[in-house]
Write a structure and sequence with these properties.
By secondary structure, this protein is an all-alpha fold. The chain has 9 helices and no strands.
């Protein structure tokens, strides 16, 4: 499904021009924002967690400052800053969709970094020492010994971050990004659909509920023995 959607947006197979972010809207925007933000936030969160936990004093301080700054500022403020202030600093040329995606990714990554850092701290240091004694490189030891355990420990709290990230996509409408909630508002604004506003918003609520339920199933699989 992802491959088909990406091909269609790129103009294949009918040979048309690519459909850029400026022409995206509704459910497509919500899905792309949610999926892209989660996928991009995972490696960034892992890097921030490792840097804050065991990096150099300067790197640890920089990671801690970034994480605490992002966690301490409401996402709405970050979206407004990314949409109206950053383009002035960068000289423009960046779409609101790109700015919204960057803000969502950074916000999710910083929240998830603290979850992963707590999970890493719950693993006894002796396991890394034993892996190094067996000749494993630090990266290999983290990937094969530490990460599988940290993943199961972090799964319940990470689920809350993932679900929150999916629901946070509804905030992008305040900066003019036309997501599924914005589409629902536009539909309800029409005279013909105004009597069905309850059904329209209920459909949007069921969409978010379905996404959250799917993420909860993934988190339960991460907790189980099959993830080891």
């Amino acid at each position: 499904m992802v491959a088909v959607t990406a091909a269609a947006l790129g103009g294949w197979p009918w040979g048309g021009s690519a459909i850029g972010p400026l022409r995206w809207g509704g459910l497509l925007v919500t899905l792309i924002l949610a999926i892209a933000a989660l996928l991009a936030a995972l490696p960034l969160a892992f890097g921030l967690a490792l840097l804050r936990r065991g990096g150099s004093p300067g790197g640890s301080l920089a990671a801690a400052a970034l994480i605490e700054a992002v966690r301490g500022v409401p996402l709405v403020t970050q979206l407004l800053f990314a949409s109206f202030v950053l383009p002035l600093l960068l000289g423009g040329g960046v779409s609101k969709f790109g700015m919204a995606l960057a803000a969502l990714t950074l916000h999710t990554a910083c929240l998830l970094a603290e979850v992963l850092r707590g999970a890493l701290q719950a693993i006894p240091p002796g396991q890394m020492m034993a892996a190094r004694a067996l000749g494993m490189r630090p990266a290999v030891a983290y990937w094969t010994v530490i990460w599988p355990q940290a993943r199961r420990i972090a799964a319940p709290a990470a689920l809350g971050v993932f679900v929150g990230a999916v629901k946070d996509t509804s905030l992008v409408s305040i900066i003019g990004v036309f997501d599924v909630l914005g589409a629902a508002k536009a539909v309800v604004a029409g005279t013909d659909w105004r009597p069905y506003h309850v059904e329209v918003y209920l459909a949007v609520a069921l969409l978010y509920f379905g996404a959250s339920l799917a993420l909860s199933r993934v988190a339960r699989r991460m907790e189980g023995p099959a993830a080891s």
